[in-house]
Design a protein that fits this description.
By secondary structure, the protein is α+β, with helices and mostly antiparallel strands. The chain has 2 domains: about 150 residues, Neutral Protease, domain 2 (Orthogonal Bundle); about 55 residues, no CATH class. Helices cover about 45% and strands about 20% of the residues. The chain is built from 9 helices and 6 strands; from the N terminus they run αβααααααβααββββ. The chain has a two-stranded parallel ribbon. A two-stranded antiparallel sheet has the order 3-4. α2 runs antiparallel to α3, α2 crosses α6 and α4 crosses α6.
């Protein structure tokens, strides 16, 4: 269960990784457990328990990056919050979704192999994922993408403009902007799905969308 029992962060800067990983992986287990799919929508629960809480904090002037410099243990007490748990977990989920399960699995196995029962830093963690992405020739530069999420506070707002003609969608446009709060806040690359429903609320189509960071 506890990520930090296998590899312990060198300092409180990486507290989020312990807490986020334990939180996120519990929902992965629920999602993949046989027999639970009839009773539990694990990722809907994840949204409520994690990202929604993180977004609420991220929209306030007091927000902070997922990874932040922690001067002492007094500061560390202040970051046991929705950013360290919820937004950090959402970033792990996005890593899994954007770069794929193979990259995630290869990166985490390599990371555990080198640092099992030792101390590590964020740079160590990202280095293994970057190497996995390059080895598998996945499109996109992992390190700048990861740092845009982990080292900059704040959220992006995304909405969709839809033009219809004769009851059919003629044009579907993704719009985004930077919310005002968050030091270093910026647009980020992120992948998500948009579902379309009929009048009986049955899914008729699902499309993946990847935003740009400019």
């Amino acid at each position: 269960m506890w990520f930090g029992n296998m590899v312990t962060p060198t300092w409180w800067d990486d507290l989020w990784l312990n807490e986020s990983f334990a939180n996120w992986i519990s929902f992965v287990c629920m999602d993949e457990a046989k027999g639970l799919e009839k009773y539990i929508n694990s990722w809907a629960l994840f949204m409520i328990a994690g990202p929604v809480r993180g977004i609420d904090i991220d929209l306030k002037p007091t927000t902070h990056p997922i990874y932040c410099d922690v001067a002492d243990t007094d500061v560390a007490r202040e970051i046991f919050d929705g950013i360290s748990y919820g937004k950090g977990g959402a970033w792990l989920r996005q890593t899994f979704f954007l770069y794929g399960m193979e990259v995630f699995n290869k990166g985490i196995v390599s990371y555990f192999t080198e640092f099992a029962y030792k101390n590590s830093t964020l740079d160590d963690f990202l280095r293994h994922f970057d190497a996995a992405a390059k080895e598998l020739k996945v499109e996109g530069d992992f390190l700048p993408w990861a740092e845009s999420w982990l080292k900059n506070a704040g959220a992006n707002e995304i909405w969709h403009d839809i033009e219809e003609e004769d009851g059919k969608i003629k044009k579907f446009t993704v719009q985004q902007r930077v919310c005002k709060h968050g030091e270093g806040n910026r647009l980020r690359i992120q992948k998500y799905q948009v579902a379309f429903y009929d009048k009986d609320m049955k899914v008729t189509a699902v499309h993946s969308i990847t935003t740009k960071d400019d």
